[in-house]
Amino acid sequence: MTIDGLSKEALRLAPKARADLARELVSSLDELGDAQVDKLWLEEAVRRDAELDSGSAGSSRVEEVIARGRARERLRPRAMSEDVRYCAICFVTPCTSAKNALEATVS
Description:
The chain has helices at about 5-10, 15-30, 35-55, 60-75, 80, 95-105. Helices cover about 70% and strands about 0% of the residues. It has 6 helices and no strands. It has 2 domains: about 15-60; about 60-105, no CATH class. The longest helix has 21 residues, at about 35-55. By secondary structure, the protein is mainly alpha-helical.
């Protein structure tokens, strides 16, 4: 199965199942060494560069990206934006590192 096919199948899962899968995939990266992680990021950068060159992907100015993020934040229900259970990086819940960092700043 291709990555695209696997991704389409994963997106058909219920939200909780997708979150569980995301958590498992993210935690599996912790098992990689620094050299492996660097190699994967380099491969990803080369892939993204090829997409830009081929025109199959576009780019956005940083100001536009920030504006879209701020607009999404304004559209979120207030209770959700105050909920620290979601990691700002992986959006997996519960993310104890995000919760612990917030508790450390509040204390």
